[in-house]
Amino acid sequence: MTTLKNNKALLPIMIAITALASVSAVGQDSAAVLFTNCILHTGTGTTYSEGAIGMKNGKITYAGRAVAAPKTGFTKTTDLKGKHVYPGLIAMNTTLGLTEIFAVRATNDYKEAGRMNPNVRALSAYNAESEITATVKANGVLFAQICPRGGVMSGTSSVVVLEGNNWEDAAYRADEGIHLNWPRMYKYSGDEEDPEAYIPDEDYGKNMQELRTFFEKAKAYAKRSFPLERDLRFEALRGVFEGEKRLYVHADFIKALREITLFKKDFEIEKLTVAGGEDAWMAADLLRENGVSVLVKRVNSLPRFAEDDIDGSFTLPAKLAAAGVDFCFQTGGSMEPMQNRNIAFNAGTAVGYGLDREAAIKALTLTPAEVLGIDSRTGSLEPGKEANFIITSGDLLDMRQSHVEAMYFRGQSLPLKTRQEELFEKYTAPANVR
């Protein structure tokens, strides 16, 4: 292999290549464009049936009623002919870009060995060229929270935009939160006679003591600006105690949810979100009073137990909304990376079971942005925010009519063609049809 040391003539070339690689694949369109005659869903709960949205230099300059839109200051006006405009969707709690083919181990990079790994960064393992990502983006998902898995403390998640040549291009907010898998209170013990049986986990007390001891040490460490010995695991948790990072706790059972709120108080954790929260409707008041938001389990899921309501997963978002609990949609579970393309349809199911339509859109856009700490830049269509939105020819939440026709990031149109479409076009071309 040729080395730079022995080939100094290559230095200018390599510097140029590095400079090019550091330039984001997505710039911003300086054109001033006004889109009129659209159904504008702002993501804040407000919809304009005859709306307009204007953008310039990658920022939204106007969003509201078409009749009140500025008549000057735009170089181009586009009539959307009654199409819908939504903020770009945000996929929460996903291994998108961290896994490609489940059966091929070399394509899976979402889990680290060991139990306590808050310092593991999902971002550096993100594959911006994943073919799954294109299929998700084609259904309106512009951002994703990529998360590690495994152990007690899985690691640190980040927000990426689903565009770019590498993880540096894609990074939108790095290392925004830490993921904790709450120790199991119960373990599966099913057999042929009782396939859904659970029994208490005898290791729960020991595992909780381990977790609390770890957090006590981490909190003491965070109080020192200049610790005598630097610990990367405790350094990663410093932001949780200082209110800069969010703690995501993966749990479902009602007893665990109650203990999690006590844990939040004991360690004075400012930002905490439950991921899963299947029993969250039972503790809705407790969660709201303690400022705990929820990443609700996949709406299109079967009941966990035989005695559970058949529509329990369908109605959970509506119950949380009625109780005033902040929540977001996610598709964590089986085949989760590719299931993100159906996240809007999961929200549509929740609408069919009592959730307000605009509340569903907010749970796909603005609320996730607030949880991730990016709401000052994106998540809703308001003047001053980035021009990050999608245009659809039908209701985004209805799989029978939804079709995403265009996507904009910082005012620039993004390609939406997938590998599947390319193959379809290739093999249905006249030259290939026999």
Q: Can you describe what's shown?
A:
With 434 residues, the chain is of the alpha/beta class. The chain has two domains: 119 residues, Roll (Urease, subunit C, domain 1); 289 residues, TIM Barrel. 28% of the residues lie in helices and 24% in strands. The strands form three sheets. Strands 1, 2, 3, 4, 5, 16, 17 and 18 form an eight-stranded mixed sheet that branches. The termini are far apart.
| Residues in β-strands, percent | 15-25%
Number of domains: 2
Per CATH, the class of the largest domain reads Alpha Beta
DSSP helix count? Answer: 13
In CATH, the homologous superfamily of the largest domain goes by the name Metal-dependent hydrolases
Overview in brief:
This protein is an alpha/beta fold and 434 residues long.
Task: Please write out the topology.
Blueprint: H1 11-21, E1 33-41, E2 47-56, E3 59-65, E4 76-79, E5 84-87, E6 89-94, H2 131-137, E7 141-146, E8 153-161, H3 167-170, E9 171-181, E10 186-188, E11 198-200, H4 204-222, H5 232-242, E12 246-251, H6 254-266, E13 272-276, H7 284-289, E14 292-296, H8 312-323, E15 327-329, H9 336-339, H10 343-352, H11 357-364, H12 366-372, E16 389-392, E17 404-409, E18 412-413, H13 419-427
Parallel strand pairs: 1-4, 1-5, 6-7, 9-12, 12-13, 13-14, 14-15
Antiparallel strand pairs: 1-2, 2-3, 5-16, 7-8, 8-9, 10-11, 16-17, 17-18
Helix pairs in contact: 4-5, 8-10, 10-11
